[in-house]
Amino acid sequence: MAAYILRRLLLIIPTLLGIMIINFAIVQVAPGGPVEQMIAQITGADAGATARLGGGAGGDMGTAGRQAELGGQGAGGAEVKYRGAQGLDPALIARIEKQFGFDKPAHERFFIMVRDYLQFDFGTSFFKGRPVMELILDKLPVSISLGLWTTLLVYLISIPLGIRKAVRDGSRFDTWTSAVIVVGYAIPSFLFAVLLIVLFAGGSYWDLFPLRGLTSDNWADMGWWARIGDYFWHITLPVIAMTIGGFASLTMLTKNSFLDEINKQYVMTARAKGLTEHRVLYGHVFRNAMLIVIAGFPAAFVSILFTNSLLIEFIFSLDGLGLLSFEALIQRDYPIIFGSLYVFTLIGLLMKLIGDITYVWVDPRIDFNSREVA
């Protein structure tokens, strides 16, 4: 097993490199990069971007400040390499490119990026003016909180419920729980979030939970027990919204997996030997049926952590990695885009490895050492 883990860890390196190459190549041809956005601000073609991006690369400079830094707008020479750049001084364009690191060839920028990423140095945000690693560490607790608690609740609800539905297949319990599951599967989690706000966060009925943030403003002045209570008070509605939208498919997967195992010959043999139903179900069936559930854990966790949390973060004003990545994508803030992608991919690969290790824990008969890693 140790040799398999070592091989998987070594495979993370070429996997990350391949993903970085593909995404770097894509953004090179994508329109509306940071240089074009800066040109739009200078020429006044994008007033919304100017208002939205505000301080710019230094964090405290507006459009006029950028013009002063870059040397102003020239009347002569037409630079048509970028959309909207005609009429600007080529020297000004060159200074903008240098400011954002686009004065070097693409291959040179890529190798510099790889060298820095090996040291977890993701550079500085183009439009926030802060180191990307610092931004990621600031936002990570929010996303981790949503992802971990949601995943924990989803599995704690789905697995027992799926087993119960399998054991009582066709009963009234199975029928009405299936109706609940269909509703949970059909309605997106962000709609549940809006409903929870209307009902419990001062929307139209009760004002029981806060509407924004992960903690209260005076959280640092609280005692430890008060801090824990305040944290769970803030996280309750977002986690409930994500759990309701996420448990349906896992419940049905668990049910179908157990049904498939229950009907196999070895279960009939175990029952014929006089074993109790509990011993048959959890001593024999559980180990085999849970393999397919465990197989989907890494993808489910990463999906909850980074994808499903985006709208929830926006609705509940939670400043996490999902919202940061979305804003970076809109602004073409490449350091944040590549840095967050690097972190997402690394976490996903490590979660996949943890899933394989869990295979062995659930079913010791699995031997990864005998497998050839492609």
Q: Give the helix/strand class.
A: mainly alpha
Number of helices: 17
- Specify Rg, calculated over alpha carbons: 26 Å
Distance between the termini: 16 Å
Largest sheet: none
Instruction: Give the strand tally.
Output: 0
Rounded mean pLDDT is 76
Strand content: under 5%
Written as H for each helix and E for each strand, in order along the chain, the element string is HHHHHHHHHHHHHHHHH
Q: Return residue spans where pLDDT drops below 50 for at least 5 consecutive residues.
A: 46-79
Oligomer status: single chain
Description:
This protein is mainly α and 374 residues long. The chain contains 17 helices and no strands. It has helices at residues 2-29, 34-43, 47-53, 63-70, 90-99, 106-117, 132-167, 172-186, 189-200, 224-244, 247-262, 265-272, 277-295, 297-307, 309-315, 321-331, 334-362. The model is unreliable at 46-79 (pLDDT under 50).
Q: What is the structure about, briefly put?
A:
This protein has 374 residues and is mainly alpha-helical.
Notable features of this structure?
single chain, 374 residues, mainly alpha, 17 helices, 70% helix
List the helices and strands and how they pair.
Blueprint: H1 2-29, H2 34-43, H3 47-53, H4 63-70, H5 90-99, H6 106-117, H7 132-167, H8 172-186, H9 189-200, H10 224-244, H11 247-262, H12 265-272, H13 277-295, H14 297-307, H15 309-315, H16 321-331, H17 334-362
